[in-house]
Specification:
Number of domains: 3
CATH topology of the largest domain: BirA Bifunctional Protein, domain 2
Largest sheet: 7 strands, mixed
CATH class of the largest domain: Alpha Beta
Structural class: alpha+beta
Strand content: 15-25%
Helix content: 25-40%
Oligomer: single chain
Strand order of the largest sheet: 11-14-15-19-18-17-16
Number of strands: 19
């Protein structure tokens, strides 16, 4: 039978071994890629068989790793003995595992105990400079070793290491290659094949008188190109759109202070949206810190209008429930002269609210927050921005309804048509004077917050908000 040079190398190796684990065929000098290919070809010619077999592999236990690093108990005890500590009681005081070390030194015939005192045998001293056989094997096992790679002597040492629970045994599934009766009896003739065309082969026209390797071409099926998660991709598109309109992106902390999330936005201390059913409170005795001047200004606005301000509640640490907290921090930076106006800002980030999880609600979601700060703005400008924003997500029909929010007046809710019904996607308005006054701003500030998840659902025809975080490959391939 005609075979390639590489096929003969593997067959000759298997004639000697009869069978071998497939990864051990690297000892033939061929690389893994060649071995896989050649074995498939030999299998097709019925010269070998391949079956799945179990293989024992040995690894160090946690205790084995510790002993390899710090020394076996018998090693530590032997060093202590030669340093002058030869009393059993003193050894126990010096080393907590002295008894284990003493037992193994006795088993090895390296020490004997007479009336509580230890005497060393003549072979003991050599192990001050030489490693114990167990130490040598532990080092080998650390690098990874299989049962077939062990000598008979090492197998005996391994048995003790397993009893001492310094080594653990694992079973692996691996392919085993066996030479068949045909492979053993068949006379083989090497036939040189061209497996790869090179400029030299083409120039010398070797392809005319040498055999070209045959390849079986099969339909590999549909190919899927790697791509970004559709949810991340759309958020990136929104970000790029807003930046193209002159908006600047801002970030803020997820673990927030109640002050920025609620109080700076003129949400009263008694407002139901501050209840534990609407905000995640962080279990900690720590309190948030806010610059005294702005804290007092916000506090006075609350006292003047609401006649109430809970300082302890204001300083509690929470998970941010709205990205409007970022807008409040931006207003503060404007008041400090760290950001210049006019300003158009936005934030796309995660917020958290206790809720019953269903197809339209989740306990965490991304919110698109935005404010426009300029001296010559009106409510009409706000509606214009909102109409443009929802167009990014493919919304063709949008409605506005009057609404109430603690921090804006006038306020509006934004609804877009998804399939046959209108769905609320956000709220907007002009910040109240009580919000902007503590920051020294005496002109309109347009503001909005939108749930990006629902807008992405509109754009992608996803019916369940939980699918926005899907890791289902088949689902994601079609988005």
């Amino acid at each position: 039978m005609k075979v390639s040079k590489e096929e003969k190398i593997i067959l000759d190796y298997l004639k000697e071994k009869k069978e071998e684990y497939i990864d051990n065929l690297i000892y033939t000098g061929l690389n893994k890629g060649q071995i896989e290919r050649i074995c498939q070809e030999l299998l097709a010619k019925k010269l070998i068989s391949i079956e799945v077999a179990e293989r024992k592999k040995f690894e160090l236990s946690e205790e084995g790793k510790e002993y390899l690093e710090k020394g076996l108990p018998e090693r530590i005890v032997l060093n202590l003995i030669f340093s002058g500590v030869n009393d059993v009681g003193n050894l126990s005081l010096k080393y907590e595992k002295a008894n284990i070390g003493i037992i193994w030194l006795k088993n090895k015939g390296l020490i004997k105990i007479i009336r509580g005192s230890i005497e060393v045998e003549k072979d003991a001293e050599k192990y001050l400079n030489e490693k114990f056989p167990e130490e040598i094997l532990l080092e080998k096992i650390r690098l990874g070793i299989y049962e077939e790679n062990l000598s008979e002597e090492e197998k005996n040492i391994l048995e003790n290491l397993l009893k001492r629970k310094l080594v653990v045994e694992k079973i692996e599934k691996i392919r085993k290659v066996k030479i068949t009766e045909i492979g053993l009896k068949e006379e083989l003739e090497i036939e040189e094949e061209i497996t790869q065309l090179t400029p030299e082969i083409l120039f010398k026209k070797e392809w005319k008188y040498k055999k070209l390797k045959e390849y079986e071409l099969i339909d590999a099926g549909k190919k899927y190109v790697a791509k970004e998660h559709f949810y991340n991709r759309i958020i990136k598109e929104v970000r790029e759109f807003l930046i193209s309109l002159g908006f600047r992106e801002f970030k803020g902390p997820i673990v927030e202070i109640n002050f920025w999330n609620c109080d700076a936005l003129f949400m009263p201390s008694f407002h139901p949206a501050r209840d534990i059913h609407d905000i995640f409170y962080v279990e900690t005795e720590k309190k948030g810190k806010v610059e005294k001047e702005i804290f007092e200004k916000v506090k006075n606005e609350h006292l003047k209008y609401w006649k109430e301000f809970d300082e302890e509640l204001s300083k509690q640490i929470i998970l941010r429930s709205q990205n409007t907290a970022i807008s409040a921090r931006v207003l503060y930076l404007i008041s400090k002269g760290k950001i210049k106006i006019p300003l158009k800002m936005f934030a796309i980030d995660r917020v958290f609210r206790p809720d019953t999880i269903d197809a339209k609600h989740f306990i965490e979601f991304d919110q698109l927050e935005g404010i426009v700060v300029d001296e010559d703005l009106s409510f009409v400008n706000l509606l214009g921005y909102l109409k443009e924003l929802v167009k990014i997500f493919g919304a063709k029909e949008v409605k506005f309804k009057p609404a109430y929010f603690p921090f804006t007046e006038p306020s509006v809710e934004v609804y877009v048509k998804i399939k046959n019904s209108y769905v609320e996607v956000g709220g907007a308005g002009i910040f109240r004077e009580e919000v902007t006054r503590p920051f020294g701003i005496d002109f309109p500030v347009l503001a909005w917050g939108m749930g990006i998840g629902r807008l992405v659902m509109l754009k992608t025809n996803v019916n369940d908000i939980r699918d926005l975080m899907s890791q289902n490959i088949e689902f994601l391939r079609n988005k």
